[in-house]
């Protein structure tokens, strides 16, 4: 039982990070139809910038704030410099552009920072809490709580504020949104900035537990993408459920089967889900129009 | 036994009934038209018959064989071909290659032989090219043969799509708005082509908004409104049918006047 | 001057051009080291030619093709060291394995569109790399293992061929590339090739004219996997060692970038892309150091500004510029 709880805790913690990344994917995908393969780099930047800002003498909270702000700007720049100029490029072109952006950010982070593994101290100490024989790091609670706050805040933003409603309007029909006077360009900038900030939050929250390096982004992006697809691309609740689900599957596979193939199960699950229900768990069944 | 026999065909998307209980027949060499206001379910009906959508209920027979739910490629092998309302031309291929691709079913060469560029594969391509060229000649498209399809005008693309469908040597041809967006000359050309094809024994199922063309060509007309067959018969009969006139003008006019009234309030 | 009739075939012209380039390039080599670089170029170009069939003709992305390259490489290493098989047999076994796997996995995976396909292939590639890393008792784990080197020097001497082993590899890989290019070019102008290019533009229209789209995509996937596997096998024999990075994510991305750089559609473009991206890191240490940043930049810039590929894109941009200058 203690073992089971242990896997549950670690699965939920990692899953919350996947959920945040998936949420970032969802936000951008809904607003622009783009699947942003560079999403994982936002998580990396969140962690790495915090590490180096803190080393430069900033208090941890300020360093984290700087990291989130800078990453949001990177997100905005990504849209402004790489996605918007591509115009109505094909989906394959956009995949390659965001893949290129991911490599570019990763390579640049390796040059600007370094290739070492880093971490900073947990927010509320490192003393584990014992529940039913299993230990839980206080940081895990931060991760879960942070994810919940982000999700609720995003939901309130989208449902109850004017810019939020503009994002939803743009997502559902870009042309119609333009016709009623929404500045869809600004909306897309906002979506990329927000999505990057969410990724950075995930990076800040998880670094004390899993540590960070310049090349952690790809794996995180893939897991987040997998989570988003598991839940059904474009559906916020799906992102959360998919993220937690993937985290749990990984944790239990690592615990009960083989830790070497922990990552493999995640991909296997993706392949199976994709093949059996290509639209994910919560996705609509759509029909091709000809 | 009819060439095409559609019986009680229905489909719903989620809770929305798009087509309900539609039945009709098409004989070889006969032109049957489906008309109806936008959103009446004409293209959806086409998509079910040609295997792109799986009907929720009902039955499609080709030459007496039940083919409901078979994929389009299987239907193509049984002699069904179609064109698309929103043009599905192979834009990156030349005009000639488009029609050559249409000859796919008649081509006999394996992947290995194609990959190795064996003489059999080259012979096949030469034969296909000749056949496609002949077809382009017949459609008066030959002088565009080496142009990329993307360089053609809309009217020519419509014709090219018919050419590609014909390359598969269909016995039943589904034409989805072949004259839409064409000028008067192009419409006349398409008109003549359809008559010629029917005379050659191909059964033709036509969706078209150009009423003059429909009235002139069709032997039999089917009127759909909101997914339901509201009338059918010979062109003269349909032209006078009050329910058809209501579907086209009456309710539309009524809607407009309601909208006008609403904005006054 | 009359053009001989066999040169009227565009396939023949591309092939002759390639053959001439391969034969004449050594005249420009400043040192013997460049035979080695040339061999690397040809083997990468071979993989890329397979991807041109998959991505350029059929329009399907694969972000995991290094996986098949890895299968070919390890087939040679494992087959010879654990089972004592002849290297030539191992090349064939690897190709069969890669092709078979691609056929088996391809059918369900290739039903997926765009991003879903990208992720599924990415996942497949990572799975293959993971197996190669984790099954250490067979594969030597993360450090890799040695592969047999062919006793080229002895053979060459026995046959009286006045070539160094490096030159022999250059010639061999060049010939294999020519064969691969020939097949890709033949396929393009055949019934099967037209089917692939048709489904690239419109899957529904392709199905309506009787093309079995799922089958055609699966074949293209398998063919490109065999190309990658053969290239991987030769790379293993050439280098004398294999490691999981050969099957890794970065290698997959490099391959895709080569295809994109060349403009996806053309065999010649693919060879150009492979040449540029193989030669740059070998000659510029700056490029090697910042490879990731550079690759990323290339991918973005190409897709934003030169979507048709470097050669056609630059030509197009030049003509447009000239045209603008001509009419001020």
How large a portion of the residues of chain C is in β-strands, by DSSP E? Answer: under 5%
Order the strands across the largest sheet of chain C as they lie in space.
1-2
Helix content of chain A: over 70%
Average pLDDT level of chain C? 88
Strand content of chain A: under 5%
The order of strands across the largest sheet of chain A is: 1-2
> How many H/I helices of chain A?
11
Tell me the series of helices and strands of chain C, N- to C-terminal: HHHHHHEHHHHHEHHHHH
What is the terminal-to-terminal distance of chain C? Answer: 39 Å
Q: Unreliable runs of chain C, pLDDT <50, ≥5 residues?
A: none
Instruction: Report how far apart the termini of chain A are.
Output: 54 Å
Q: How would you sum up the major sheet of chain A?
A: 2 strands, antiparallel
Domain count of chain A, please report it.
1
| Total of DSSP H or I helical runs spanning 4+ residues of chain C | 16
Structural class of chain A: mainly alpha
The radius of gyration over CA of chain A amounts to 19 Å
Low-confidence segments of chain A, given as residue ranges, are none
How does this structure look, described?
Chain B: GO terms for molecular function: ATP binding; ATP hydrolysis activity; L-isoleucine transmembrane transporter activity; L-phenylalanine transmembrane transporter activity; L-valine transmembrane transporter activity. Chain B: Keywords: ATP-binding, Nucleotide-binding, Transport. Chain B: This is ABC transporter ATP-binding protein. The complex is a heterotrimer of chains A (290), B (265) and C (328). By secondary structure, chain A is mostly helical. Chain A has one domain (24-228). Helix content of chain A is 74%, strand content 2%. In chain A, a hairpin with a 2-residue loop joins β1 and β2 (134-136). The model of chain A has no long low-confidence stretch (mean pLDDT 87). Chain B is 43% helix and 22% strand. Chain B contains ten helices and ten strands. The longest helix of chain B has 23 residues, at 242-264. By secondary structure, chain C is mainly alpha-helical. Chain C has one domain (5-249). Chain C has helices at 10-24, 33-57, 66-83, 87-109, 114-134, 136-139, 152-159, 165-188, 191-201, 203-208, 213-239, 249-262, 267-283, 285-289, 291-305, 310-326, and strands at residues 145-146, 241-242. The model of chain C has no long low-confidence stretch (mean pLDDT 88). The A-C interface holds A 35, 82, 85-86, 89, 91-97, 99-108, 110-111, 218, 222, 225-226, 229, 233, 260-261, 263-264, 267-268, 270-271, 274-275, 278, 288, 290 and C 55, 59, 61, 63, 108-109, 111-116, 118-120, 122-124, 126-127, 130-131, 134, 204, 249, 253, 256-257, 260, 290-300, 302-304, 307.
């Amino acid at each position: 039982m203690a073992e089971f709880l242990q896997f549950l805790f670690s699965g939920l913690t990692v899953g919350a990070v996947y959920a945040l990344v998936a949420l970032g994917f969802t936000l951008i995908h809904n607003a622009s139809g783009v699947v942003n393969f560079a999403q994982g780099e936002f998580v990396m930047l969140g962690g790495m910038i915090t590490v180096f800002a803190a080393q430069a003498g900033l208090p941890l909270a300020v360093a984290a704030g700087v990291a989130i702000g800078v990453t949001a700007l990177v997100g905005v720049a990504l849209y402004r410099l790489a996605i918007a100029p591509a115009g109505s490029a094909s989906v394959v072109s956009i995949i390659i552009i965001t893949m290129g952006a991911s490599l570019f950010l990763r390579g640049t982070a390796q040059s600007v920072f370094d290739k070492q593994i880093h971490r900073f101290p947990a927010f509320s100490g490192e003393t584990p809490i014992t529940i039913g024989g299993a230990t839980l790091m206080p940081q895990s609670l931060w991760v879960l709580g942070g994810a919940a706050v982000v999700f609720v805040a995003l939901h309130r933003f989208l449902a109850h504020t004017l810019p939020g409603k503009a994002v939803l309007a743009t997502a559902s029909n870009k042309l119609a949104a333009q016709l009623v006077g929404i500045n869809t360009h600004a909306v897309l900038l906002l979506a990329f900035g927000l999505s990057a900030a969410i990724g950075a939050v995930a990076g800040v929250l998880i670094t004390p537990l899993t540590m960070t390096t310049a090349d952690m982004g790809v794996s995180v992006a893939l897991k987040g993408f997998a989570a988003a697809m598991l839940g059904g691309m474009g559906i916020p609740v799906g992102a959360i459920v998919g993220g937690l689900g993937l985290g749990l599957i990984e944790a239990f596979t690592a615990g009960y089967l083989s830790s070497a193939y922990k990552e493999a199960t995640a991909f296997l699950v993706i392949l199976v889900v994709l093949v059996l229900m290509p639209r994910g768990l919560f996705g609509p069944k759509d029909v091709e129009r000809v | 036994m009819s060439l095409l026999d559609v019986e009680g065909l229905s489909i719903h998307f989620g809770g929305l009934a798009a087509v309900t209980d539609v039945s009709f027949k098409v004989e070889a060499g006969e032109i049957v038209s489906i008309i109806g206001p936008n959103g009446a379910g004409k293209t959806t009906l086409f998509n079910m018959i040609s295997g792109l959508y799986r009907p929720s209920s009902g039955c499609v027979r080709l030459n007496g064989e039940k083919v409901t739910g078979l994929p389009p490629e299987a239907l193509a092998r049984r002699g069904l071909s179609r064109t698309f309302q929103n043009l599905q031309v192979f834009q990156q291929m030349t005009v000639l290659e488009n029609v050559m691709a249409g000859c796919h079913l008649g081509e006999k060469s394996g992947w290995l032989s194609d990959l190795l560029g064996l003489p059999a594969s080259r012979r096949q391509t030469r034969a296909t090219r000749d056949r496609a060229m002949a077809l382009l000649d017949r459609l008066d498209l030959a002088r565009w043969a080496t142009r990329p399809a993307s360089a053609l005008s809309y009217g020519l693309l419509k014709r090219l799509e018919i050419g590609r469908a014909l390359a598969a040597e269909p016995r039943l041809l589904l034409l989805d708005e072949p004259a839409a967006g064409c000028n008067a000359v192009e419409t006349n050309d398409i008109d003549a082509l359809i008559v010629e094809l029917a005379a050659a024994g191909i059964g033709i199922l036509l969706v078209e908004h150009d009423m003059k063309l429909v009235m002139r060509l069709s032997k039999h007309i089917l009127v759909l409104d909101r997914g339901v067959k509201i009338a059918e018969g010979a062109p003269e009969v349909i032209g006078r049918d009050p329910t058809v006139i209501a579907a086209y003008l009456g309710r539309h006019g009524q809607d407009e006047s309601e909208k006008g009234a609403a904005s006054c309030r | 001057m009359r053009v001989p009739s066999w040169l009227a075939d565009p396939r023949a012209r591309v092939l002759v051009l390639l053959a001439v380039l391969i034969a004449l390039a050594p005249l420009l080599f400043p040192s013997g080291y460049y035979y080695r670089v040339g061999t690397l170029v040809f083997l990468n170009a071979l993989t890329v030619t397979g991807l041109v069939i998959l991505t350029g003709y059929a329009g399907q992305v694969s972000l995991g093709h290094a996986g098949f390259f890895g299968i070919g490489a390890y087939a040679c290493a494992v087959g010879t060291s654990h089972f004592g098989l002849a290297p030539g047999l191992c090349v064939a076994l690897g190709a069969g394995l890669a092709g078979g796997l691609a056929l088996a996995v391809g059918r369900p995976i290739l039903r997926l569109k765009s991003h879903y396909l990208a992720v599924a292939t990415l996942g497949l590639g990572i799975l293959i790399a993971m197996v190669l890393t984790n099954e250490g008792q067979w594969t030597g784990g993360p450090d890799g293992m040695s592969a047999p080197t062919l006793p080229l020097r002895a053979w060459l001497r026995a046959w009286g061929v006045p070539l160094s082993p490096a030159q022999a590899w250059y010639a061999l890989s060049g010939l294999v590339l020519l064969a691969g290019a020939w097949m890709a070019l033949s396929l393009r102008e055949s019934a099967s090739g037209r089917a692939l290019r048709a489904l690239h533009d419109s899957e529904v229209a392709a199905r309506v004219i009787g093309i079995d789209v799922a089958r055609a995509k699966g074949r293209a996937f398998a063919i490109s996997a065999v190309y990658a596997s053969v290239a991987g096998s030769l790379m293993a024999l050439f280098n004398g060692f294999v490691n999981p990075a050969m099957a890794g994510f970065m290698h997959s991305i490099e391959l895709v970038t080569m295809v994109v750089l060349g403009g996806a559609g053309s065999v010649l473009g693919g060879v150009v892309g492979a040449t540029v991206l193989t030669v740059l890191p070998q000659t510029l240490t700056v490029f090697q150091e910042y490879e990731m940043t550079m690759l990323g930049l290339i991918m973005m810039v190409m897709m934003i500004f030169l979507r048709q590929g470097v050669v056609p894109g630059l030509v197009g941009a030049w003509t447009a510029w000239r045209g603008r200058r001509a009419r001020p």
